[in-house]
Amino acid sequence: MSLAHKGRWITLVGLVCLAGVYVRALAFTPVERLQGPAQKIFYLHVPAALWTEAAMILVGLAGIFYLFLKDPRLDRFAAASAEVGTVFATIVLTTGPIWGKPIWGTWWTWDARLTSTLFLFFLYVGYLLVRGAVRDPRLRARYAAVLGICGLCLVPFIHLSVFLFRTLHPQPIIVKPSAPSLPGSMLATWLFSLAAFTLLYVGFVTQRYALSLARDAQQGEHADHA
Amino acid sequence: MPDVPQNAGYMVAAYIVTAVILLIYAISLHRRTAKP
Amino acid sequence: MGDLLAQAWAVARKDLVLEFRTRTALVSAVVFTALVLTVFNFGRDPTAVPTVDLAPTILWVTFTFAAMLALNRAFQLELENQALEGLLVSPLSRTGLYWGKLVANLVFVAVVEAVGLPLFVLFFDVPVGRVLVPLVGVIALATLGFVAVGTLFSALVIRTRFAELLLVVILLPFLVPPLIGAVQVTARLLGGRPLSESVGYLKLLAAYDIVFVSLASFLFRFTVDE
Q1: Which of A21, A24, A98, C21 could disulfide-link A193, Cβ–Cβ 3.0 to 4.6 Å?
Q2: C144 and C209 Cβ atoms separated by less than 8 Å
């Protein structure tokens, strides 16, 4: 089974899993008393946010290893993780305001998670733009690695600045959107969702990686003919 | 005890948006990786 | 080490001499700063919002624009004269080259800030006298952060399409932590708050500078070498 094929299967399983999460979250998980049904957005929003950040960390790590090992597989992986991370960031940035409006009364607040994800989104866009702007694959891989590593190092600073900003500027939050300790049924739904998003990340990255592989192989053929 | 807020509309919207984004991306990848 | 410093100084001096000889870029940046401040001045209603609340943001937006101008002109010079190729062929260490560029950019931005700050005090009538030393300190810390990353990215975009646009886009997320720190500390200083209240942000600025100056200096070689 080719890589793309494997990727498709994993993605399919992930989507089926997600459908299961939908059913469980919408029909079989209790409604949170203070926030109401809108709280259930949490089951999609938080796993997506976790993977948005994890994907960026992996892009950065792949970059570090690439600069030392020069293995193009690492670069392909980085490109794949960045694209998938961007998709997940989009999910966080759309579900976040949809959740925020009924809970906080406003579409946007400088909530720690939303703000961090917004900057991760900008990092991803910049990274993908740089990749798109460089023709030569080796040069592109090197530049992408440099940017990816810088992005990785920026992540803790984004968290730190948001943390400082929020602790020294208390926001009037009536309800804390992410309950620190979830009752059993809610925790199970959340974990199930995390598993679904993990499968989706792996499936998507595998397919995207296969795409890079195919493109590189094609370019290799053209180079031979040239 | 205050009533549970009636905001299910937002929940539905978010769940639909997420599904749409993921499905669009999945289809996009599927098509891009299909053998020509 | 002495070698490195000598090399850095040689590069910096070349850039600075070029700069001060023509003076066009410097004059443009200074005029631009004055313009931005003037526009902000006319844009606000002093009876609605006290100046001292807006002042830090205005100051830092202006300084950020000035830093962006400096970085853009830095590699315009390179592009026009293809000086980069010449420098790379010379027996100059990559790190020395980076430090040279960094110093030149810093001097340029410092001159613009040195003109901008008095203009700012003049237009906005903010009480700067008592806090001048810490204020200059904060300005120095934040500027070092922007320019360190910006110098690295300038080298990165130089061989890409849409280089100037790309530079701004990829730099943006990296400006946020130093900007948050700078605006918050400036606000507290101008508001007469004791320095102890700004310690968290000052640590943020210092940590950012240490991490990114080292990182940029190390990664620079990958943006210019095979």
Answers
A1: A21
A2: yes
Q: How many domains does chain C have?
A: 1
> Range of C180's domain?
2-224
Instruction: Assign A77 a pLDDT band (cuts: 50, 70, 90).
Output: very high
Report residue C68: phi and psi, to 5°.
-60, -45
Any chain A CB within 8 A of the CB of B17?
yes
Q: Tell whether A20 is covered by a domain.
A: no
Identify the residue with better confidence: C158 or C152.
C152
Q: Compute chain A's Rg from CA coordinates.
A: 20
Asked if chain B contacts chain C via 3 or more Cβ pairs within 8 Å, the reply is no
The owner of tokens 């460089």 is A134
Q: Are A141 and A77 in contact (CB under 8 A)?
A: no
Reported pTM = 0.89
Do C152 and C216 form a contact (C-beta atoms < 8 A)?
yes
Within-domain flag for A220: no
Tell me what pLDDT residue A184 has: 82
pLDDT tens digits, one per residue of C183-192: 999 999 988 8
pLDDT value, residue A175:
45
Query: Nearest-CA residue of chain C relative to A157?
Result: C177
**Is the residue at A155 inside a domain?**
yes
If you average pLDDT over residues C117-127, what whole number do you get?
84
Domains in chain A, number: 1
The alpha-carbon gap from B3 to the nearest alpha carbon of chain A, in Å, equals 8
CA-based angle B11:B16:B18, to the nearest 5? 100
Confidence of residue C49 (pLDDT cuts 50, 70, 90): low
Rounded to whole angstroms, the Cα distance separating C215 from A141 reads 18
CA distance linking residue C196 with residue C207, whole number of Å: 17
Q: Which residues pair with A157 in a beta bridge?
A: none
Q: What is the pLDDT of residues A94-108, one digit of tens each?
A: 999 999 888 888 888
Cα separation, C209 vs C201, whole angstroms: 12
Domain of A79 in residue numbering reads as 42-171+181-213
Write down the mean pLDDT value for chain C. Answer: 84
CB A192 within 8 A of CB A20: yes
Do A211 and B33 form a contact (C-beta atoms < 8 A)?
yes
Average pLDDT over residues A68-82: 96
Report the SS3 class of residue A134. coil
Whether pLDDT at A179 is above 70: no
User: Does residue A69 sit at the C interface (CB-CB below 8 Å)?
Assistant: no
Q: Is residue A26 part of a domain?
A: no
The continuous run of DSSP H or E covering C128 comes out as: none
**Quick check: A31 and B4 CB within 8 A?**
yes
pLDDT value at position C127? Answer: 80
Burial-class residue A176 by CB neighbours within 10 Å (0-12, 13-18, 19+): exposed
